[in-house]
């Protein structure tokens, strides 16, 4: 079986350094908010090009902390794409605000800037942009709208560590960004972890307190905060892996470039991104077909593991029963047709060859995907 993502092989490459990192933490005698977290924060903010980085517990908490720090809550509305991973939307509802879903562009799978204005009301406070599948969203028009309407722009960078938009990296494209370092992300810890990046000092200071019970000074609480800290151990692992992030992203790009050049099947629609190959970090390589179930079954029979990102649109989830009556045809079409094929920094040429030729031999009788 060609695995979708062989995490053991990814981390085995760095086993020696990861063990050194854990030894360093164990023998330091200091396990929460110490030198490793501080060093990782400096290294990741330098990587993204931002002034500040705050290590936190996970990606969902990173987004929640940004919304909280901006005092976004009950009665406020936040614009978010209708085809994102559910965590982007959970962060909005967790602070008591209302997610306002806006359709993506079918060519990029990212928020369609042309549809944002129609959804802005007096209650709109922010646009939560998701750089889905590793491709940065079209930020210039989004930032312009935010400026015109006095809205915050919050990036969900969980799938796009290192992706570039007009020579700037994700994390540095809006007012603040939330990152996840869940093990399967492009930059993955060995457990849960996340971060906020921003150039806004006041916001950074507030999030630093909010992640730690609302306190800058022990036992002095200025906010009703959370326990949303990044562990020293995970920070030490992330420092090891950050050094290899660009190499891993380049390995993904090489595979993506082969898929884009060599998959040639009228029943399969490839992502529409060739000009931006160097900008995209290909967290996922998604293709579309009108008979997705058949394709997934065919690939499984041919020993290729696939995953669907995502099978159910957020507004169709039981958790959001209030949204179930809404209709988002573009998001629904994507959710019906999309399927992710294997891509990772450790996938070898033989497996990539096999995936390409097996996909090129896929056939369905009735029609092509549009
Ligand atoms: C993974 C992910 C998150 C959540 O990150 P966690 O660390 O699992 O909380 C948020 N948004 C997107 C788009 C993601 O892919």
UniProtKB/TrEMBL annotation:
It holds the Pfam family DegT_DnrJ_EryC1. It comes from the Bacteria. The keyword Transferase applies. Keywords: Aminotransferase, Pyridoxal phosphate, Transferase. InterPro entries: DegT/StrS_aminotransferase (IPR000653), PyrdxlP-dep_Trfase (IPR015424), PyrdxlP-dep_Trfase_major (IPR015421), PyrdxlP-dep_Trfase_small (IPR015422). The active site is at 185 (proton acceptor). SUPFAM superfamilies: PLP-dependent transferases. GO terms for biological process: polysaccharide biosynthetic process. One of its GO terms (molecular function) is pyridoxal phosphate binding. The modification N6-(pyridoxal phosphate)lysine is found at residue 185. Belongs to the DegT/DnrJ/EryC1 family. This is DegT/DnrJ/EryC1/StrS family aminotransferase. It comes from Psychrobacillus psychrodurans.
């Amino acid at each position: 079986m060609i695995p979708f993502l062989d995490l053991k092989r990814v981390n085995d490459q760095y086993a020696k350094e990861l063990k050194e990192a854990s030894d360093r933490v164990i023998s330091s005698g200091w396990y929460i908010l110490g030198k490793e977290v501080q060093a990782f924060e400096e290294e990741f903010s330098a990587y993204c090009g931002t002034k500040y980085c705050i290590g936190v517990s996970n990606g969902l908490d990173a987004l929640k902390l940004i919304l909280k720090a901006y005092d976004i809550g009950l009665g406020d509305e936040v614009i978010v794409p209708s085809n994102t991973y559910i965590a982007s939307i959970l962060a909005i509802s967790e602070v008591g605000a209302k997610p306002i879903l806006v359709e993506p562009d079918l060519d990029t799978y990212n928020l369609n800037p042309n549809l944002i204005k129609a959804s802005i009301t007096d209650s709109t406070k922010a646009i939560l942009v998701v750089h889905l599948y590793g491709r940065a969203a079209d930020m210039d028009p989004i930032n312009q709208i935010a400026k015109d309407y006095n809205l915050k722009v919050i990036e969900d960078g969980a799938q796009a560590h290192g992706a570039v938009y007009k020579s700037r990296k994700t994390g540095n494209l809006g007012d603040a960004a939330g990152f996840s370092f869940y093990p399967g992300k492009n930059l993955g810890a060995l457990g849960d972890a996340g971060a906020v990046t921003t150039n806004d000092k006041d916001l950074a200071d507030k999030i630093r307190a909010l992640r730690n019970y609302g306190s800058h000074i022990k036992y002095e609480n200025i906010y009703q905060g959370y326990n949303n800290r990044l562990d020293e151990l995970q920070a030490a692992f992330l420092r090891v892996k950050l050094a290899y992030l660009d190499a891993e992203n380049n390995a993904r790009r090489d595979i993506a470039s082969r898929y884009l050049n060599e998959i040639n099947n009228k029943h399969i629609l490839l992502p529409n991104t060739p000009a931006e190959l160097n900008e995209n970090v290909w967290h996922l390589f998604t293709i579309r077909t009108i008979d997705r179930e058949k394709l997934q079954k065919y690939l499984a029979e041919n020993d290729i593991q696939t995953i669907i990102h995502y099978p159910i649109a957020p507004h169709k989830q039981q958790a959001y029963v209030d949204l179930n009556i809404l209709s988002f045809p573009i998001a629904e079409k994507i959710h019906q047709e999309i399927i992710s094929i294997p891509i990772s920094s450790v996938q070898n040429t033989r497996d990539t060859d096999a995936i390409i030729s097996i996909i090129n031999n896929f056939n369905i009788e009735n029609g092509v995907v549009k």
